[in-house]
Input
Amino acid sequence: MLLAIDVGNTNTVIGLYDGDKLVHDWRIRTGSDYTVDEYGMLILNLYKTAHVGMNTVKSLTGIIISCVAPPMLNILEPLCQKYFKLKPLIVGPGTKTGIPIHYDNPREVGADRIVNAVAAREKYGNNVIVVDFGTATTFDYVSETGEYMGGCIAPGIVVSSDALFERASKLPRVEFSKPKSVIGKDTVSSMQAGIMYGYAGLVDGIVDRIKAEVKKNPTVIATGGLARVIAPETRTIDKVDDMLTLDGLCIIYSRNSNKRTG
Output
């Protein structure tokens, strides 16, 4: 059994794998103010609610972590050793990913972006764009020859919305949902239309520019917490894959398992 942990700036997604099959997954808040024991008990309680017994916990053979919030590693690394008696594999420089990285400084690339690229290439083939709707909205391109070529980083939907609420004193905080019309008849629906269709336009605009630059027609895969909300309003997203990052972690762990046991 493998425990895959994807730590984002806002949320942490946890997946339990039996071989290459995802058997349980959970999404919790990322919080560097937790203690090791608080986070450990939280994960064990998630196990209990999913009716995962302690025998399953004891049968864990590995843990892999992708983290874009470095302070969280000060919690998760000792947690893994204290509660699971395992040293986790942290995705970073030196990790065998199986994908060439064409970036001026490969160490600058977020671990989640590389993990997404690995999963997308493995599951959907080469010539693919991954759009990840997280705290930031990222766009990553894998070429026809299977190389990670880089991409774009834009402010995330929630980040942009929060900035609008905070800086415009007369605008209320609104629920992020699809409005009845793009032409709003009140402040709330006008804001919802701007956020929803503004981001759909951002996605289509950037994807179109990537396609024009590479002179190809790559498959576009969306992932992240808000992917299923935005994707139907775009014309360029071909598929939504909620578990893309977790699957990428499982793939990377498999590619490093011989190295670790050796």
User: Anything to note?
Assistant: The beta strands are 2-7, 11-18, 21-29, 62-67, 89-90, 128-133, 136-142, 148-155, 219-224, 239-240. The chain has a mean pLDDT of 90. The two ends are 19 Å apart (CA to CA).
